Amino acid sequence: MSDIVKQGYVKFQSKNLGIWKKRWLVLKMHSRRGPVRLEKYSDEVASLSSGKYRMIDLSKVENIYRLPDFEKKCAIHITVDCMQSVQFSVDSELECENWLKMIQGEIQGALINRVCVNIYSPDSFNVYLTKHPKLPTHGECTMEITDTEIRLLNHRDQEIVFWPINKLRKYGVERNMFTIEAGRSCVTGEGTFVFESEASDDIYSRVNNVIKSQALAKRNEVSLGVCNREFCHVLHILLCFVDHILVVVW
Length: 250
Fold this sequence. Notes:
alpha+beta; PH-domain like; seven-stranded antiparallel β-sheet; PH-like_dom_sf; elongated; 2 domains; PH_domain; 33% helix
């Protein structure tokens, strides 16, 4: 699933000379690949070939507005912080309004989503599921981690697949990649599944805590079983001893 919301040629004003230069601009939504942002390329070809670009992190925007026509027609000003601001223009009023609404909408949407996830779903994470032959889909989805399993949900909150945590052979994290190795008793069968996420370290910690809790519960259960067996053994000896005394007295 692409995270591109809008893209096209615009004109950026250079800071040194104040010259307006044509550049390819891409607006991307918040995803596991990064925050809501603008990516500025030299041209469209550079964006398709993953060439060099400058990123403008819109999650830190302080202000965004239309420039007055006497300064520059069909232009937008974005203040990221006291150290960074950008201005770009387009060819028409309609296109300018479209860019402005799209950018503002993505900023607000990312903020609402971040608040909802933090408040209502502490064990839910936005992940990007890499393609795997044993799964019916790939791309952006939600990972839910309970005390017993890992579940993947699509954008409609419908379950895609699940893995019992106690059936995992391995799990690990490297950079922004969280990986699990499922056992043959899982619904997917054996396989290694990879998820990209900004919260990969948090996912690892959550799964690791579940594993530790399950191990502790199992150890306590075993200890209780040993205690019960020892108690029964002692009780049996005492009963035999009492029976022996009764026989002697009789």
